[in-house]
Amino acid sequence: NIFCFGSRYTQLFPQSRAFTDESLESAKQLLQGLDANLGGTEIFQPLRAIFSSPNLVGKPRQVFVITDGQVSNSEQCIQLVEEFSQHNRVFTLGIGASADRHLVKGMARVGRGVPSFTTYGENIAGKVLKQLKQALQPCVHDVQVNWSPGQGADTESSQAPLRAPPVYDGSRMLLYKLWSKAGGVGEKVTITAKTPEGNLSLDVVIGEDSFIEGEMIHKMFARKMIQTLEENFEKKDPAEVKSIITELGLKYSLGTKYTAFIGVDSLTNKESGMKTRQVRNQVAYGYGMDNCMVDSMGSVSRSQKCGAAPMGMMRSFFSAPKMMRSAPGAAPPGAAPPGAAPPGAAAPSFGSMARSFDSMKECAVIDGYDDSYSEDSDDDVTKECGVMSRSTKSAPTARVPQTNIDKIVALSSLQTAAGFFKEDSIVESLIGEKFAAFKKQCVEKKIEVKVWLTALIIAYLEKNFPDERDTWELIVEKAKDWLGKTDVIRRATDILR
User: For 107, what's the count of Cα atoms within 13 Å in the CB-facing half-sphere?
Assistant: First the structure.
């Protein structure tokens, strides 16, 4: 399912549906008409709607949140995710400098997922697919750490965070432990966890090389402990939590909600008086550009002749609706991946999103959808004095991709829900004369079109785009699962050499 949210939210289906060619087509139709017409960023209500909906397959639901904005109630959103974390896993992606980092990291942390960030103009397909792979694969969970036998300070309250997060492939786990000077540090730390292959036990020896001089680690511990206190105990005992946070902030010189740094000038300049200087500050991308205002239907009107636009007016034009994908049936922590592979064409949709950032238009995508030709190109946006207008010309029907990511997107968009690729002239345009030669061989051997075409695209992606493996890996894996015939792929690989 797809939820688009702003000041209000909409959803594609009344409830989540299986990934089929029909549901994929519905998603494409939705996204082709998607525009920044939902207002500001309000994420609490759509999150609550997702978590309140029935879980159709009896497994933890995977929720992917993509946002580029700030919210005023980030703490409430994080608490909501934590409340429903037993049956939902939340993965988050923040886009651009104005994305709420506290919200993006916090929801993924309490939702037992992984946060990620990307900048405008960056290809985000690899990052999105990495999150999808992490959501599908089993993880190391139920992690317990036994800090060596207590010489006076081995208490649970000195570990931060109190509960170890799950560990995904390619990620790391950071835990902090505060020891008293009297007790000292033990000789080893024992880590136990559960994995799909069985229980895991690991002893980490504490040697002379394990120590770092200075207070940096102490400050990092204090920051994590403050975060743990705010998220887990502030509602239960606010006075006690305030006291502990204040003590930690003062002891380790940290800025918190109860402590701050104050600069006092002990010297008074009596001759020249107060001096001022300009301090440059970072603002959200797009602030102060052409002055325009967009109504709820997406039309553009002139508000002033020239000059920078007020922030509120620019917000309505440059903030596209965000997307959350709610996917029931994904693997719970520690469980094997579901039998059915995920939609393999998730990458193209986000690759096409990356190209749209230059014109400041985003799209929301369900796995398997590609919108590579439906988004406005830079030519569709014309600027005049204080006015920006977007043309309504139809999208091009034939275009030869130039960049590697555009080529991957174009081919990936041809993949069906089952995993094989559909016929399209773009395949021959990219592969060239070797396409006709391989086609002739397969026709003579009476190999079905979708079989040899799928094998040829697999071989082409693997041969020509090794550096973009993160982008096409799941797509190829899904295609291979459907194909099951390695000899056809081998012939395709031979002819492309």
Answer: 30
The total number of residues shown for the chain amounts to 497
- Measure the CA–CA gap between 320 and 98, rounded to whole angstroms: 13
User: Do the bridges between strand 88-95 and strand 115-118 make them parallel or antiparallel, or are there none, so unpaired?
Assistant: parallel
pLDDT number for residue 80: 93
Q: What is the pLDDT, as a whole number, of residue 223? A: 93
**What is the model's pTM?**
0.62
Residues 6+ apart with CB under 8 A from 200: 140, 191, 192, 193, 194
- List, in sequence order, every residue forming a beta bridge with 66; answer none if it has no partner: 93, 323
481's enclosing H/E stretch is: helix 469-483
For 140, the token pair is: 């190391």
Instruction: Answer yes or no: are the C-beta atoms of 203 and 189 closer than 8 Å.
Output: yes
Token match 């081995």: residue?
Answer: 154
**∠ CA(214), CA(217), CA(223), 5° rounding?**
130
- pLDDT-wise least confident of 187-201, 214-228, 239-253, 261-275: 261-275
Strands 159-160 and 198-205: unpaired
Cα Rg, the chain, nearest whole Å: 27
Element (H, E) at 22: helix 21-32
316-331 as b/e: b if 16+ CB within 10 A: bbbbbbbbbbbbbbbb
Q: How far apart are CA 406 and CA 402, in angstroms?
A: 7
Question: Across the chain, how many H-helices and E-strands are there?
Answer: 15, 15
Average confidence (pLDDT) over 150-162: 64
Residues whose CB is less than 8 angstroms from the CB of residue 103 and which lie 6 or more positions away in sequence, other chains included: 43, 67, 70, 71, 74, 77, 78, 92, 94
Compute the half-sphere exposure of residue 361: CA atoms within 13 Å on the CB side of its CA: 21
Element at 5 (helix H, strand E):
strand 2-5
pLDDT tens readout for residues 354-405:
333 333 333 333 333 333 333 343 443 333 333 333 334 444 445 688 888 8
Helix, strand, or coil (residue 256): coil
CA of residue 327 relative to chain centroid, distance: 15
| pLDDT, tens digit (0-9, with 9 covering 90-100), for 29-58 | 887 777 766 666 788 999 999 999 888 777
CA dihedral (358, 350, 324, 70) positive or negative: negative
Q: Please check whether residue 97 is in contact with residue 70, taking contact to mean a CB–CB distance below 8 angstroms.
A: no
φ, ψ of residue 312 to 5 degrees: the values are -60, -40
